[in-house]
Amino acid sequence: MKAPVSWIREYADLPADASAEDLAARLTALGLKLEAIERPGHDITGPLVIGRVLTMKPEPQKNGKTINWCRIDAGAEMSQQFGANPAEAVGIVCGAHNFAVGDLVVVVLPGGVLPGADGSGTVAIEARNTYGHVSAGMICSTKELGLGEDALPSGMGGILVLPSDAGQPGDDVVELLHLRDEVVELEINPDRAYALSLRGVAREAALAYGVAFHDPAERAKPAPDDAGYPVVVDDAEGCPVFVARTVSGFDPAAPTPTWMSRRLLLSGQRPISLAVDVTNYVMFELGRPIHGYDADKLSGPIRVRRAEQGERLTTLDGNDRGLSPEDLVVTDDSGIIGLGGVMGGRTTEMSGTTTRVLVEAAHWDAVSMFRTGRRHKLTSEAGKRNERGVDPTICEVAAERVAELLAEYGGGTVEPGVTVVGEPPEPPTITIPIDLPARVTGMDIASHTSIANLEAVGCAVEAAADTLTATVPTWRPDLNDPFDLVEEVARIVGYEDVPSVLPKAPSGRGLTPEQSMRRRVGRTLAGQGYVEVLNFPFVGEADLDRLGLEAVDSRRTTLRLANPLSGEEPLMTTTLLPALLRTVARNLSRGTDDLALFEAAPVTLPHSGVGTPILAVDRRPTEGEWDDLTKALPQQPLHLALALCGDRNRAGWWGKGRRASWSDVIETARVVAGAIGLDLTVRSASLAPWHPGRCAQLLLGETLVGHAGELHPKVCRAFGVPARTSVAELDLDALLARAVTLRKAPALSAYPVAKEDVALVVPETLPSAELAATLRGGAGPLCESVRLFDVYTGHQVGEGHKSLAFALRFRAPDRTLTEQETAAARDAAVALAVQRHSAQQRT
Predict the structure, then answer these.
(1) Closest CA relative to residue 806, chosen from 838, 839, 835
(2) CA angle at 309 for the pair 306 and 311, rounded to the nearest 5°
(3) How much is the pLDDT for 630?
(4) Fewest CB within 10 angstroms: 151, 400, 764, 842, which?
(5) Cα-flanking dihedrals φ and ψ of residue 297, to 5°?
(6) Contact by Cβ (8 Å): 167, 74
(7) Radius of gyration of the CA atoms of the chain, in A
């Protein structure tokens, strides 16, 4: 919300020395956060005055351009100072042609400074020889004054022609055009809709300084009668109040007054035409959105109702919209003429031929306005206010204000008929304990302070012995419960006075075992060189397609959000891989080629065929409803996802580097499991999105807890990640449920290790981890470790086979092993491998 300080001062008796910075600081303390302070026109200096065009002589030039040699009456003092001689007016060369002899214009004389034409820097004005004349200044356009291109309708983007009663030649125009006004831009929270108006901001400013506030809405309401335009409201809940006034004899060519155009510009609204500008001006002034119809285009009475299925409307922005039965619409005998409270229709739009205007000031249900705007993806200044809640009691005042301005500046006549349909809802009352503000805030707030502060924000307060009953002001729909009143009292007293008292730390028992295990997993991955990332838990069907998931894949059973942040990602994710791969691609696009990332986050696994019940919000759910709601809650297990690409070990003086491979990501999964006392079994598998021949199952016993391996090339291309990128995803909840929280430290033997190596030829499909487990089991308790150190495939071992070489290490806790003991343990390990896997020992 942009609020010109001069406009605020009209309604609040601010101190004369109150600066924009001080005003912004005080408003921020009250909850209207400062966004920016703007000072348009503050770079304009020097003589800037009203001038009257005395003569205007066109002079064609050799370059085909025609200039005007003008004599300007800039006032006696200025003419004497800058004229050819004391008796002559100021001579100025001008290339524009949209003004005439006798017009009042804005003249900047030598020594003046204007903003640069491109909006940056400044331009110093000097007397100079041009086109055979000494031009002593410049006749200004709206753009040169910093008022914007086509900002003021009378200027049309060329020379700014002032109204005939603007002043006398030589008068300063800075105040006339509000050229050095200051603007405070505020961030308004959605529940503070009253502050989306100068009425609301000025009320807060008066509150901040403790000065008088002059409410622009405090004026006599016109009495309704039967002579006004006929209106029927079929949905009183959606439209509690509808007010209509009519202005006839309106001149559509009448210019918007300069002061109004300037204020609209400072408020961030581009002036369009007098009829439109007046409705926008009153909306910014009072906060009440207004809509104007070309009354001659209306046919029959206006009716407010809900739309019917299949009905359509072409709105003012030119879009043909299909309507929903939830939309509130305004109709006449010709059909739908507007989307109530959001945007009008094309058929009754005000135009350059409008001479009779019907002014609509209606109060609309805020929830309906929000849903309609969201449904049609429509945002407007009117919709922004209607969907947040507007004062329902000022419809008559707003309509009367618009009608008066149209009549005053458009030469029209306000017709006597006043249409008022409906009544505003009664404001609620809230009762609180008289000491509640003090108890909640911890400040010493006396009861009379609470009463005074609530009255200052517009509440009518009745005090009893131990309670206060406040009638909420009609412009504050955000005040609904006792603690809203506490907040109002506290923000006026000052949040800076809330005592800073640190609570005593409770004597807890530290982290839970699960929390400790999760931290251990994170530290382990960090030690392995991985970096943690956090992603939004949302995906779209396109993400699941890029993963190559089949239609029957359980990971396609997702929970769809009714109100997603992005229409492209409306689903709660069932796998962490899409978001993790997008993160990999994003980092690659920024020059990071070697990546090791992990994410630990929940996924959402909905119950198939179980819908979410929609419960009433005006009561507590029954036991049965609570059970249904609990059953509908999806499972959200914690998953762990890993991603590797680029170099795992970089090259350097120490030797060659090594590219990350799918075996690295499998080993990382095993290291993570080992950190919490678990041992994963690895088996070959085939599952999207992994490469069929480079995918592994990860099991705890016979329980599947995840998969790891190299991504399918199609998936890599789809996500824009390097070929042979490796990923893993594990059910971290399943791992943590079986984690060994307390482990006995291993006994260390002081005796030397005995080394034995074996090479076994096995079927190519046999996982090396499975063979290693068999060797460990066959070697018995003397086996300290089994490590794979070589894999060979070729004609020497035969097609469909491979040779796996293992280093076996043996050690006894109480003696040095003999060669016979070591050989016996080795032979037992080999024998079991032969028995289980038909292995053949290579010699």
Answers:
(1) 839
(2) 80
(3) 84
(4) 764
(5) -95, -5
(6) no
(7) 40
Buried b (16+ CB within 10 A) or exposed e, 403-420: bbbbbebbebebbebbbb
Residues 6+ apart with CB under 8 A from 389: 193, 366, 477, 478
In a domain, 748, yes or no: no
Three-state DSSP class for 801?
strand
> Identity (one letter) of the amino acid at 542?
A
Query: Where does residue 364 fall: left (phi above 0), alpha (psi -120 to 50 degrees), or beta otherwise?
Result: beta
Q: Domain range spanning residue 802?
A: 754-841
Do 646 and 654 form a contact (C-beta atoms < 8 A)? Answer: no
Q: Is residue 832, in this structure, part of any structural domain at all?
A: yes
Strand (E) positions, 450-494?
460-463, 467-471
Calculate the alpha carbon distances from 573 to 244, 577, 639 in Å.
Answer: 51, 9, 11
- How many structural domains is the chain composed of? 6
d(CA 184, CA 712): 56
Q: Which one of 421, 444, 473 terminates a domain?
A: 421
Dist CA 719 CA 579 (whole Å) = 10
CATH of the domain at 392: 3.50.40.10
The residue among 835, 842, 754 whose CA lies nearest residue 791 is 842
Determine contact, residues 254/410, Cβ cutoff 8 Å: yes
User: Number of C-alpha atoms within 13 angstroms, CB side, residue 158?
Assistant: 10
Q: Do residues 298 and 396 share a domain?
A: yes
Rounded to whole angstroms, how far apart are CA atoms 441 and 428?
24
Under 8 Å CB-to-CB from 248, ≥6 apart: which residues?
A: 295, 355, 356, 412, 413, 415
Strand pairing partners for 231?
Answer: 302
Rounded to 10°, the helix 274-286/395-410 angle is 140
Reported as type and span, the H/E element at residue 448 is helix 447-456
Residue among 26, 28, 24, 6 nearest 16 (CA) = 6
Q: Cα 539 from chain centroid? A: 19
Evaluate whether 414 touches 249 at the Cβ level (below 8 Å): no
| Tokens linked to 680 | 């994963």
Q: 598 with 679, same domain?
A: yes
Same-domain check for residues 568 and 490: no
Paired tokens of 666: 């499998």
The sign of the torsion formed by the CA atoms of 441, 445, 450, 456 equals negative
Query: Does 689 sit behind a cis peptide bond, omega within 30 degrees of 0 on the bond before it?
Result: yes
Structure tokens belonging to residue 85: 């001689």
Is 575 in the same domain as 714? yes
Q: How many other CB atoms sit within 10 Å of the CB of residue 258? A: 24
Query: Residue ranges of the chain with pLDDT lower than 50?
Result: 86, 150-156
CATH at residue 799? 3.30.70.380
Give domain status of residue 218, yes or no: no
- CB 306 within 8 Å of CB 369: no
* pLDDT score of 149: 54
Shared domain check, 257 and 142? no
**pLDDT score recorded for residue 744:** 76
**pLDDT number for residue 154:** 41
Is 238 found in the same domain as 298? yes
Q: What is the per-residue DSSP string for 93-120?
A: EE---S--TT-EEEEE-TT-EEE-TTSS
Within a domain: 683: yes
Distance CA 82, CA 178 (A): 25
Q: What is the pLDDT of residue 5?
A: 93
Residue-level pLDDT at 500: 84
Mark whether 543 and 666 lie in a shared domain: yes
Question: What's the rounded Cα separation, in Å, for the pair 359 and 344?
Answer: 12
Instruction: Report the first-to-last Cα separation within the chain, whole angstroms.
Output: 85
Tokens of 683: 């088996």
Structure tokens given for 321: 């919209």
- How far apart CA 342 and CA 340 sit, in angstroms, is 6
Tokens of 51: 């001038």
Three-state secondary structure readout of 4-30: EHHHHHHHECCCCCCCHHHHHHHHHHC
The pair of structure tokens assigned to 577 is 């891989």
Q: What is the pTM of this model?
A: 0.65
Whether 437 and 529 share a structural domain: no
